[in-house]
Amino acid sequence: MDTQTTTKTKPIGLGLHDDYPAICIQDYETNSFKWFNVYEIFQNSNDLEEFTNLMKKAREFVITSVSSEWFYPDCQYLHSIYSEHISDEKLFEYMESLEDALADGHSVSLHEEFIGAFGDSYFCELSEYYYGEFESTKEFSEHYIESTIDLDSIPDLIVSNIDYENVWYDLQHDYVEIEANKSTYIFRQ
After folding, report:
1. Are 13 and 62 a contacting pair, CB within 8 Å?
2. In 3D, which of 91, 128, 94, 107 has the Cα closest to residue 180?
3. Predicted confidence band of residue 23 (pLDDT cuts 50, 70, 90)
4. CA–CA separation, 34 vs 16, rounded Å?
5. Beta-carbon neighbour count of residue 36 at 10 Å?
């Protein structure tokens, strides 16, 4: 009697990378799970259709039978859009947005915090709303005042008494503070 063994080919993206978005795929039936680097899957696809096929292969690698169901019990750098059954299309759009942010010199964590603060309707908009990186909102307020007001035309007595921390409270109507990478980033609203 011949026995037949089948082996599963290791899918693209298998494993967790600390610096990039990842998602955990779990089998409802057996509770077995695997982490997948979604960014690596995105980089190995040319369009949404290829991305969807690679994500399908990742899920098939985890589930144990045809009748098994899967879900995403956890994620990394995807909390701003996370749900247990997030669509491949939403993941793909998020990755396109991340790719734009990285190309413009921004970090994965800043992108995640930006989408968390502004929402998924702002995919691919990070650089459009980005104002700058500052040590604090006080430093931003000082920069803003110095770049918009001719302080030389104002007496030193007044200039030396500007409360830049208080100025931030007025600027919050037009700007948003986002903390990422141990820095303060300012975005236009």
Report:
1. no
2. 107
3. very high
4. 9
5. 27
Q: What is the pTM of this model?
A: 0.87
Radius of gyration of the chain (CA): 23
Report for 56-65, 100-109, 162-171: range of highest mean pLDDT: 100-109
For the cut 80, the answer to whether the pLDDT of residue 5 exceeds it is: no
Query: What residue type is 115 in one-letter code?
Result: I
Say which residue the tokens 């918009």 belong to.
148
CB of 32 closer than 8 Å to CB of 62: yes
What are the backbone dihedrals phi and psi of residue 71, each rounded to the nearest 5 degrees, phi first? Answer: -155, 170
CB 133 within 8 A of CB 183: yes
CA distance 39 to 17: 9
Q: Which two tokens stand for residue 77?
A: 């750098």
Write the DSSP assignment of the chain as a string of letters: -------PPPPTTBS--TTS-EEEEEETTT--EEEEEHHHHHHT-SSHHHHHHHHHHHHHHH--STT--EEEEEEES-TTT--TT--HHHHHHHHHHHHHHHHTT--HHHHHHHHHHH-GGGTT-HHHHEEEEES-HHHHHHHHHHHHS-GGGS-HHHHTT--HHHHHHHHTTTEEEEEETTEEEEEE-
